[in-house]
Structures are given as C-alpha cells and as structure tokens.
Amino acid sequence: MKQIKTIEYKENQLILLDQRKLPVSREYFVCSTYKDVEFAIKDMVVRGAPAIGATAAYGVVLAALEFENNSREDFAKNMAIACERLNDSRPTAVNLMWAIKRMKKIISKNDEVKSVCNLIKAEADYILREDINTNKRMARAGSNIIMQGAKILTHCNTGALATAGYGTALGVIREAHYSGKNIYVYADETRPRLQGARLTAWELKEENIPFTLIADSTAATLIRDGKVDVILVGADRIALNGDTANKIGTFMLSVVAKRYNIPFYIVAPTTTIDFEIETGEEIEIEERSSEEITHIVDVRIAPADINVYNPAFDVTPNEFITGIITEKGILKSPYNVSIPKCKDNSSV
Ligand code: MRU
Fold this sequence. Notes:
Blueprint: E1 7-10, E2 13-17, E3 28-31, H1 34-42, H2 49-67, H3 72-87, H4 94-107, H5 113-143, E4 151-154, H6 169-178, E5 184-188, H7 195-206, E6 211-214, H8 219-224, E7 230-233, E8 237-238, E9 244-247, H9 250-259, E10 264-267, H10 291-294, E11 295-296, E12 299-300, E13 313-316, E14 323-326, E15 329-331, H11 335-344
Parallel strand pairs: 4-5, 4-7, 5-6, 7-10, 10-14
Antiparallel strand pairs: 1-2, 2-3, 8-9, 9-13, 11-12, 14-15
Helix pairs in contact: 1-2, 2-3, 2-4, 2-5, 3-4, 4-5, 5-6
This protein binds 5-S-methyl-1-O-phosphono-5-thio-D-ribulose (MRU).
5-S-methyl-1-O-phosphono-5-thio-D-ribulose (MRU) is lined by residues 47-50, 93, 156, 158, 162-163, 168, 195, 234-236, 246-247, 312.
C-alpha cells in the first residue's frame, strides 16, 4: 500500500500536500505562520474534515512558536486571536472546532509559556497520530458490511488526502481491497470542486483499486440498473439525531439509495460528531464563491453577472442512513440513543 503524506510537521514548518494542484502536479505548500495555515484551510490547499482538524492544531503550534517569548498575559491574548481565526477558517466540518477546543484547553493551563508551548506541540502530534489509528479502526469496523465482489459508490474525497492518512469511507474501501474482496468502485466526480475526479480518482489509481469515474448525475442510473451494492460516504458534521452534513450531492444520493433499497453508510470518526447539536438544522452550511460554478480551472463556462447558489455541503436526514461506521463500531438507528451512548463508551 502506498503511503500518501498529506500533513507533515518538520523543523517548525507545516508541510501540506497542495490539493489544489493534484492530480496534475505533486507540490507542497509550506506554512511558517498560523496565518499561512488559516489561508491553506480557507483556500482548500488542505480539505476534508479530519485533515483540517489536524492542520488547524498545527496552526496553533505555529502561533505558539510566534508568541513563545511574550509575557504570559500577551501570550494568552495573541493565542486567543490565533485560535479564533483558525476556528473560523471554515464553518461546517466540526473536527476543526474540536481540535481548536482541545488546544485552547491546554493554552488555558496556568503553566509557564514554554511548557504550554511544549504541551501544544505534543497535543497536535497526538491528534495527527490518533487520526490515522482511528481511520484503521473504522476500516476494520466497516469491513464486515462489504461483501465479496461488492460494487461500491462513493462521493467526494474521503481518503488519505482528507485525513491524517488512510481515510474514512475510502479507508473502508482500501481495507476491503487489500483483504482480497475483489471490490469495484464508482467515484462521483463531485461538482463543483471535483474532489472525486481530481483526488479520489488519483488515490484509487495510485493504489491500483479498480474503479470508474462518473458524473454526479450518472449515479441514479447506475443504482437503478443494479450496478451498486453499497454507498459509502464521509461526513463533516453529525448531529445527535444522526442527521449528517457532507459534501453537496450526498443527500441526493441517499434519496436514490432509499428508493432502490441500497445500503447507505456514513463513515466518520466520533470527532465528527457534534454532541452539542440535536439535529442537522443547527449545522452551518458553508457557501463558497460563485466562480467555483461559473468557471472550470479558471476558464469561464457560464455567462458573467448571473445568480449562482453554491452551498458546499448538504444535510442527509437520519432516516436515509443505514448506519454510521465509526472507530467504536457501527452506530444504528435510533441514533438519538446510539450516538450519545458512543460518547463515553470505547465500543458500541
Ligand atoms: O469541501 P471539502 O473537500 O473539505 O469537503 C470534504 C467532504 O465533504 C468529505 O466528504 C468529508 O470531509 C469527509 S472526509 C474524511
């Protein structure tokens, strides 16, 4: 299996595989300050819920380096500003807020600045390491639902690029492939940012996992024609009742899956669960620029000065979700019972 390094912290710099440039070229974006990290998240140099959580944690590490010679008071003030800016860099994926919350807890310790800085770095390393472990546990938990020869449909990119390594939905796909299940993947191109065409297709090709790339609008036909056995997608935020925000287009897939009785699974670490919100209605959905729709790779494909609506995510209602595959096991409906239970339990 090929090791794809999405996020690496080396010699006081955060090195990110630049996902804006893939698959045409493999370039790295180097962050030396927390503002570089803020930019990298906003501009989607790095994307995918778990990946932006880990990246933001290292943004806090870089801020700590910048302010380590401040007085205790100034350090706290500057770190609060840095945390807020990083926290606000994208609104929907809760892993970002989760990571910043963990870092803020450390900053609030009343220790001397140098030792707080060391703790901050240790915490970021832990978040990165833990995400890879979590991905592998999810992949094992999910492997039971993948039958020999299964044809799997997936949306967006949920692989090593979207996490600290391995992947969520794509992690389950990897595990099934390497355990000899002879699977076949259909990857949605995922308009408008094309994470499926640019990133998922790249990862699947790198690993020689057999697949076909399809336009998003082809999925319903494939499902109706019996060419899909199971749908696996990731998540950006899951509410206590199981409603799940994920890449725009996920909701539509779930409706078609229900119509044709195709199992529809979310694969996400428990860090993607927002234990503070009851339903998906409380999830803030990011709206991105109109150019993502009117242009493809800087080429205008629509007339100028028109109305454009470009939400980056949608919410799939819990009744369309067959199960939520987490590192603690597979959560089932009623989610308002199984989700709160998994908060404390090490397995479900
Ligand atoms: O806008 P993006 O590319 O950050 O959106 C990513 C997704 O919606 C993924 O499906 C989700 O974060 C799960 S990734 C493991």
